[in-house]
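In this supplementary section we document a worked example of the pipeline. Step one takes a protein sequence of length 231 as its only input; no multiple sequence alignment statistics are reported here. Step two produces a three-dimensional model, which step three serialises into C-alpha cells for compact storage. The input and output of this example are shown verbatim.
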Amino acid sequence: MRVVIARCSVDYVGRLTAHLPLATRLLMVKADGSVLIHSDGGSYKPLNWMSPPCAMAEIEPTADEAEEGVAGVWSVQHAKSEDRLHVRIHEILHDSSHDLGVDPGLIKDGVEAQLQALLAENITTLGDGYSLIRREYMTAIGPVDIMCRDADGATVAVELKRRGDIDGVEQLTRYLELLNRDPHLAPVSGVFAAQQIKPQARVLAEDRGIRCVTLDYEALKGMDDADSRLF
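The serialised model returned by step three reads:
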C-alpha cells in the first residue's frame, strides 16, 4: 500500500462529475489498484475513490496546471468504463509504501457467523436447487463467505452482512471481478445477503447485476432444529 499526504485537488469524471477543491488530504493506493482520497474527519469512508480494475499513471502537469502550482498529476482510468479520477498534487507532505501481506479477512461477530452457518446449512433459502460448495472460500484478496451453485449449476458467490451497506457491495464486487477470471468458476454471479439492506446498497448491487436477499435470522434458526441432530 502506498500512503501519501498531499495538498491536492481532485476531479472525478464519468457516470457522475465531482470536484474536491485544493486541501490537504490522505491518498491511498492499494495493491488491488484502487485509489482512495480521505479527509481527516466526517466519516471513515473516502471522499472519492476509484475501484479496481483501474490503472494509475503519474504524469506531468500541463502548462496551465503548472502556473497554478500543480507539481504532479495522478490520472486514474477505470478499465471497464470511461470513469476517470484526476488528482492534481501541489505539495507532497508524506509519501511511503508498505507491504501489508495477505489479509486473513474479517472475523465475523457471533450473529454474523451464525447467519453464515445457518445459511450454509439451509442453502436452498437462496432458491430451489441451490447446493453448497463451501463456506469461507479463500481468494487472494480474502475469503468469500459462501460459494454455492444455483439450480443450473452456475457458481454463485454470497457476501453476508448483518446490515448491508455500500461497502459490502463493493467488497462482493471485488470478489466477483477476481473469481470471474478463473475459467473453472466463471461465470460467477453474486448474492448480497443481510438482515437489513440499505436502499443505497440495494440500488448499487442491482446496478451491478448482484441479487439482494433479506435474511430472517429467527426463521433460519427455526430451520436449525437441534432435536433432529445426531451431534
